[in-house]
Amino acid sequence: MKANAVAAAAAAAGLSVPGVARAVVGQQEAIKWDKAPCRFCGTGCGVLVGTQQGRVVACQGDPDAPVNRGLNCIKGYFLPKIMYGKDRLTQPLLRMKNGKYDKEGEFTPITWDQAFDVMEEKFKTALKEKGPESIGMFGSGQWTIWEGYAASNFDVRSCLKRASVRTTSTRTRVTVWRRQ
Q1: Which residue has better confidence, 116 or 169?
Q2: Looking at the structure, do residues 39 and 57 belong to the same domain, yes or no?
Q3: What is the pLDDT of residues 9-39, one digit of tens each?
Q4: Nearest residue to 156 (alpha-carbon basis) of 146, 145, 165, 143
Q5: What is the CATH number for 24?
Q6: Cα 67 to chain centroid, rounded
Q7: Domain boundary residue among 84, 104, 136?
Q8: Co-location of 80 and 97 in the same domain
């Protein structure tokens, strides 16, 4: 992975690093490389994901991808570490005290069903008590591909009872508003 970062930095500067290239070529025999879109933002860079024994072990930019032309940003290069990091969230957490939601409570692991039940309850309460103007949606170019897809396909008119939806860009921001 360090070799890929060095090679990318050298390529950006217009330099050649033959030792790095040989090291990567030597690794390719033991690593299976597959093309994929990077999932860490809405840009859609093409990456080559290296797997070994069912685990992602390397990631490099796809030289055939027109978006990133073989280069990765820092998130793309650290994909394997991000996927297997010890501090990665793998289940929902809810602030709780005495077995119930509490804004001042400690983060406690809960099931996905519980998480969706809490979100549903909070949305319904906000809509009932404060109306549709109390709920909105904002996003950014740092959304993952999946988050952007979900947001752009979310039926705001029926779910949030909004009269209008304005999308400034499906890749950068979704803004929900109501006509006056």
Answers
A1: 116
A2: yes
A3: 655 554 444 444 445 555 555 899 999 988 7
A4: 165
A5: 3.30.200.210
A6: 18
A7: 84
A8: no
∠ at Cα 86 (81, 90), nearest 5°?
100
Cβ proximity of 159 and 149 under 8 Å: no
| Rounded Cα gap, residues 88 and 68, in angstroms | 26
**Structural domains counted in the chain:** 2
Q: Does residue 121 register a pLDDT over 80?
A: yes
- Do 59 and 128 fall within a single domain? no
DSSP result, the chain: -HHHHHHHHHHHTT---HHHHHHHHHHHTTSEEEEEE--SSSS--EEEEEEETTEEEEEEE-TT-TTTTT---HHHHTHHHHHH-TT---S-EEEEETTEE-TTSEEEE--HHHHHHHHHHHHHHHHHHH-GGG------TTS-HHHHHHHHT--HHHHS--SEEEEEETTTEEEEE---
Predicted TM-score (pTM) of this structure: 0.56
| Residue 38 in tokens | 């990077």
In the listed set 60, 84, 108, which residue is the last one of a domain according to the structure? Answer: 84
Residue numbers of the domain that contains 164: 93-177
